[in-house]
Amino acid sequence: MASNQTLDDDEVEQLKQSLPKAIYRNSELLTKYQNFWIAHNNNQLHNILNLQRHFLARDTDIFITSIPKTGSTWLRSLLFSTINRTKHPCIDKNHPLVHRHPNELVYNLEAIYGNAFDYPRSTDLNEMSSPRLFFTHLPYESLPESIKHSKCRILNITRNPLDTIVSLWYFVINMMKIKQGESYKPPCFEDFFKDFYDGRFVYGPFFEHVIGYWKQSLENPNKVLFLTYEDMKDDTISQLGKLAKFIGVPFSSEEENEGVVEQIIELCSLNSLKEMKVNKSGVINKVFEKKSYFRKGEVGDWINHFNPKMVEKMKDLIELKLKGTTLSFRLLLE
């Protein structure tokens, strides 16, 4: 359960100094907390501890969980549009997605307890109407206990690790250019690959994160829905139907006949979101360019970045990490 105890800055700093450290991207210091990596030189640990201690989940809450750059921005737009399809029909030219980035409609849990841009303060959470929509990159083990023990719903999305690396690489480069300016020298792709391969990146390791949610989807299928980016791209209509049913708002036969599902998919498509004026400029949380969330969205773009040696190393790692599970990754769409 959440606690009202206030976090002491010195206590947090002592904890941070006691935790394992690693260098990421040849320069950035990471801290390992509860078996995953977070940025050391900001307030990320403080925000996560506040979240774990104070957040109270409602049974009606819906959470999107994921490793960064695995399709969660797309899923946020689909979730928001599906939940609000009566209040905000997708054919409405004033739909909220036309005026606000998906990250401003589905709130980042960690950012709420930090210095977030355009997010409600933690004290305002009780004023939000249900269902509240959130997303987080935390692994299952590190979610607040109130989320684990409530009847809320969790939508987890994952993506094949090769495309994830590529998408994350471009995103990090854009972010660091904003933070450091033109003097920033981006890491070479080979070095970035090595960090990811070793599990050394913010919210990594990748496979442990993915398997954690996958296991929960098997143990509690009414609470956790496990989705893959590749399946979503391959058959968006049926996957969106599954999502709507899971969160308790299935599409009616009338809606299906009227093309409501296709309208949501079109509004939330990468091309549609990319062309919206609101997503062409500006930043989220002061360092994330809005347009950087919408690059290619292709399955198999990794083939343009990986050399044969890296492909073999990653395939071997996938086989090793997924041994003993029925999980698999589709690296290409046929």
TrEMBL record:
EC number: 2.8.2.-
Domain Sulfotransferase: 59-325
Keywords, comma-separated and alphabetical: Transferase
Molecular function via GO: sulfotransferase activity
Family per similarity comment: Belongs to the sulfotransferase 1 family.
Protein name: Sulfotransferase
